[in-house]
């Protein structure tokens, strides 16, 4: 991928862009295998490659510049303001969408927030697109409610100019710190969810729910998990009970579960749980229960293990206590998806009762040293 910003050293966010893509993929595979040190009988699959550009369907842009000439992008290490509206990581539809965001900022007179002086209102623009429908979700991260009435007044203009805009909201982040968003979300449109669909599974995204940046790779990840579980059931019989911890909007659990199976999905965010419940209903899954709880606390309070435990923790990993509770519960099968191979390796070192059967790398973040990993483990007899 060629990027003019990288070539001019204005933006180095894609810090591996100087490497050809096959080399990037090979390096990631080497790093993963060095961290996990898989046994000889572990099945190490080939990494799943990414598209080299146009794959990011979620943008997080700092709002810089002035009301009359807003900039969406970053401040680089040289303290230069860099507009990334033309970043080649985004699909083609993002460029005109960013142009409309800038026009709206000018129309509403939204002053970009200045960290040094702690003045201004608009901190970030968060933009997501559904690959399935092409529709967008736009979030304005503001310091306060001072401009809320003006945004509401001019929003009909933006919706008229941008028919693909499905959901629009304001997030309030009053702290003078480098925090992306706050707790309070004010949805301004009639629609409150952005519909996505991966592998014929409907998923619904709320403004504050987590969803993978790259839907094509997410679809491959979920389908692979479903295929691995289907193979297990062919060989060892169907599972009665499945747990999906850190389930988000239900991506893994909804891909894995058959109508007769019991699925329990646990996620701390109530809005994500509501989305997952809606998807399960549309799929006709009646033995499904999604609950808004802390995953670690749920495991700690549980006495009976599922047949299959699915975990997809944040970058910090499972942690020692949750690993110990998994060992106590002793599910026969463990499907662990990780966005941080380092913490994955640390968790596997604690889960000594489990044998690593399969591992596969999914290049969710091309041109960087980050990636997603899917592993399948079996409890030792």
UniProtKB/TrEMBL annotation:
Superkingdom per UniProt: Bacteria
Per the Swiss-Prot or TrEMBL record, the active site comprises 339
Q: Does the keyword Metal-binding apply?
A: yes
> What EC designation does it have?
2.1.1.189
Coiled-coil annotation: which residues? none
Keywords of the record: 4Fe-4S, Iron, Iron-sulfur, Metal-binding, Methyltransferase, rRNA processing, S-adenosyl-L-methionine, Transferase
- Family from the record: Belongs to the class I-like SAM-binding methyltransferase superfamily. RNA M5U methyltransferase family.
What is the recorded name of this protein? 23S rRNA (uracil(747)-C(5))-methyltransferase RlmC
Source species: Rheinheimera maricola
């Amino acid at each position: 991928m060629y990027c003019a910003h990288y070539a001019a050293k204005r933006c180095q966010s894609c810090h591996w862009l100087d490497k050809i893509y096959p080399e990037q993929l090979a390096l990631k595979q080497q790093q993963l295998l060095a961290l996990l040190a898989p046994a000889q009988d572990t099945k190490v699959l080939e990494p799943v490659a990414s598209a080299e550009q146009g794959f990011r369907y979620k943008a997080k842009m700092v709002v810089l510049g002035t009301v009359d000439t807003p900039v969406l992008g970053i401040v680089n290490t040289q303290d230069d303001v860099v507009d990334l509206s033309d970043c080649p990581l985004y699909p083609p539809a993002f460029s005109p969408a960013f142009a409309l965001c800038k026009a709206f900022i000018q129309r509403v007179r939204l002053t970009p927030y200045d960290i040094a002086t702690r003045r201004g209102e608009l901190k970030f623009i968060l933009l997501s697109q559904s690959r399935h429908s092409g529709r967008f979700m736009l979030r304005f991260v503001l310091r306060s409610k001072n401009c809320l009435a003006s945004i509401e007044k001019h929003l009909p203009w933006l919706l008229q100019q941008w028919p693909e805009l499905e959901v629009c909201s304001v997030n309030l982040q009053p702290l003078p710190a480098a925090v992306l968003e706050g707790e309070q979300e004010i949805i301004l449109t009639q629609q409150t969810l952005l519909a996505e669909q991966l592998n014929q599974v409907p998923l619904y995204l709320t403004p504050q729910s987590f969803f993978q940046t790259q839907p094509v790779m997410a679809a491959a990840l979920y389908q692979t998990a479903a295929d691995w579980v289907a193979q297990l059931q062919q060989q060892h019989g169907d599972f009665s009970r499945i747990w999906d911890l850190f389930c988000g909007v239900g991506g893994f659990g909804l891909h894995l579960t058959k109508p007769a199976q019991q699925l329990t999905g646990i996620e701390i965010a109530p809005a994500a749980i509501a989305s997952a419940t809606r998807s399960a209903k549309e799929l006709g899954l009646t033995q499904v229960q999604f609950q808004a709880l802390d995953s670690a606390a749920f495991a700690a309070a549980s006495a009976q293990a599922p047949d299959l435990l699915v975990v997809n923790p944040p970058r910090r990993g499972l942690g020692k206590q949750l690993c110990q509770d998994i060992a106590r519960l002793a599910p026969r099968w463990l499907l662990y998806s990780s966005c941080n191979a380092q913490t994955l390796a640390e968790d596997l070192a604690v889960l000594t009762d489990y044998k690593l059967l399969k591992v596969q790398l999914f290049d969710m973040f091309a041109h960087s040293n980050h990636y997603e990993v899917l592993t399948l483990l079996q409890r030792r007899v």
